[in-house]
Amino acid sequence: MDIGDCVIEAAGLRRRYGPQGGKGFEAVRDVSFTVRRGELFALLGTNGAGKTSTVELLEGLARPTGGQVRVLGHDPFTERRAVRPRIGVMLQEGGFPADLTVAETTRMWAGCTTGARPVGEALELVGLGPRRDVRVKQLSGGERRRLDLALALLGRPEVLFLDEPTTGLDPEARHTTWELVRRLREDGTTVLLTTHYLEEAEALADRLAIMREGRIVTSGAPSEVIGEYPSRIRFAVPVGWFVGDLPPLAELGVIRHEESQGRIELQTRELQRTLTGLLLWARDEGVELEGLDARTASLEEAFLAIAGAGEGTSAPEPKPEEESGPARRAVAGAGSRRSK
Ligand SMILES: Nc1ncnc2c1ncn2[C@@H]1O[C@H](COP(=O)(O)OP(=O)(O)OP(=O)(O)O)[C@@H](O)[C@H]1O
């Protein structure tokens, strides 16, 4: 990668809360990642994982206690003047004067922004045009988030920091925001997003990182992160058949199987091969696989496994399927599900 393409660089970042020299609490522990120009990078993690603490370091709102951060080639804390006009920041809680109208608030903000968009344009972008004369205190929670976003977009930022931008938005408003974020990215804006909506990260992110207890435990393109987890095939065991009547599962690429209440679940890292083998077997035997459902792992499954795992764990190690295939009479609940 050409280093000139790198818009955000975090190297060994640390952030400790508490008195200087004291023990305090380390919320960010050796976090490193880069974000390229025009990329949308999502930072995920459970409550308290350290996302906001990290993003605040990137925004120059605090000085790291260790490591280095560069945004657009500058230190965002010590070279704030060089960085601030080129970034847009949407914080988790905006905090606006409640008695000003939407347009007045935006105008006030525009007055402090170099090269600001016209107020009407910024409000139209986030769908708040019709609400321009409403007082901020009369806005719904979702509308306030959209006003936050309009203010972050005022200066046509090269880098946009979105801290949980769609929290409190109804599904329609959320999708509208996604469309807007996609358009901004297509126009070359680099976006760093934190979100609790995994569907949002899956839909928008070019790359993502999952944080737990102040550390990044996994990162990559969504498909790479999901790809660490096995796909699943589920169906009802045909009446009069046993699991042991299936072809040897290990030979089909099955790495784990479970049977419960007449339904079987197979886990595989080779979904197409396993499914093809299973369907050919069913056709040859004239068997109907009722309720057949085959799917790759979702980001949510990957996230829950990572977030819920113990210290130092990133991806699950599946219990290997026996070489000779499963026992003829399946044991209910054989194999253990990943903890969620
Ligand atoms: N000012 C502070 N003083 C002391 N501890 C803090 C402070 N701010 C945050 N923390 C702690 O740092 C940890 C990380 O918090 P942070 O807000 O960065 O997490 P987060 O991943 O953004 O969480 P959320 O998803 O809930 O917003 C938490 O344990 C939090 O309690």
UniProtKB/TrEMBL annotation:
Subcellular location: Cell membrane
Region (Disordered) location: 307-340
Family matches, as SMART domains: AAA
Domain ABC transporter: 8-238
Keyword line: Antibiotic resistance, ATP-binding, Nucleotide-binding, Transport
Membrane topology: Peripheral membrane protein
InterPro entries hit by this protein: AAA+_ATPase, ABC_transporter-like_ATP-bd, ABC_transporter-like_CS, ABC_transporter_ATP-binding, P-loop_NTPase
Compositional bias per record (Low complexity), positions renumbered to this chain: 327-340
SUPFAM superfamilies associated with the record: P-loop containing nucleoside triphosphate hydrolases
GO molecular function (one): ATP binding
Protein name, as recorded: ABC transporter ATP-binding protein
Origin species: Streptomyces gamaensis
Phylogenetic lineage: Bacteria, Bacillati, Actinomycetota, Actinomycetes, Kitasatosporales
